[in-house]
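Late entry, evening session. Most of the bench is empty. Finally got around to the prediction I had been postponing all week. Sequence below, unchanged from the version circulated by S.P.
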Amino acid sequence: MGEPGGGVWRRAGIAGAAIGVLAAGAAAGVAVERLTVSRSVRRKARLALDATGPFGTLRGTPGRALADDGTILAYETDEAEAGRADEGFGGPLTVVFSHGFCLDQDSWHYQRAALRGRVRTVFWDQRGHGRSERGGGKPVGIELLGRDLKAVVDAAAPEGPLVLVGHSMGGMTVMALAEQYPELVRDRVVGVAFVGTSPGRLEEVSYGLPLAGVNAVRRVLPGMLRTLGSQAELVEKGRRATADLFAGLVKKYSFASKDVDPAVVRFAERMIESVPVDVVAEFYPAFGAHDKLAALAAFRGLPALALVGDRDLVTPAAHTEAIAEALPGAERVVVPDAGHLVMLERPEAVTEALAALLARAGEGTDNG
């Protein structure tokens, strides 16, 4: 028999590896890789990829917003070049980007680079992610995230027209903002983009697993996260010990194409593994309770984008279709051969769709 602590260590490793994804569907592929590539070679490759590419190096003017519970939220602003700020909007437009669960503002790297200087942008870190404070350590609901976004808007863009962009949990945050502050949407929002997100019914998502498997995961994962959330240091050690499995899970549930840049995959790993397991435990229950389909009514009549990767296992295309149906006239974009992190996997398609949204938003403002 193994040592008494072995079971706890093993559970910590599994839970740590599962952060940011739901199930261990990639385990078999990782096991095969272990037979052919030594652990030291894989570790050296990860270190080399960490030093590759510009990911995470784009920085703007830093700012801090104060949430209604006193949590400090970090954001950065990129200003438009002189002469571009007022084009088509009757005032300085600001595009506010909200990132997804277990990511941070750098997940918008490619879109930030493409829009830099062309339009004023705000990128922020959701509470417990990136440079933002964690908060009180209590369960986090999507409604609270909507209020956080309002605090960021108040601090970073207190006046002028807005375009709101949200990926995954960030899209849910945008919906929560609209539900609680419909007057803000009415008075200031001129466009909205939902990227790989969901209006609700996430309990029906199978994550590419057989029904029995995903139901089993749903039964044990909340309790496991609660238990191991109080053993965060142990879990983080376990996650490092199971780095190969974790990498396989990230790739399976974040990307779909075989030709995705390994540096991009490693960048996603670093973002996801930076979020402590106790933060994951605080956020996880919110997704089962998320139901914001009715809140989308606040955006009707506005230029809107509903975009998703065709092989997204986390927020499948049917959820984006539900958003588009709730927003008649929204541009529907299904990006081929793309997974959940479509803005990193197929950045050109996402940036092009966002640029088209901004053009339509400008036309609508001119006509209004």
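Two things to note before I forget:
Residues 347-367 form the longest helix (21 residues).
The chain has a mean pLDDT of 83.
Will write this up properly tomorrow.
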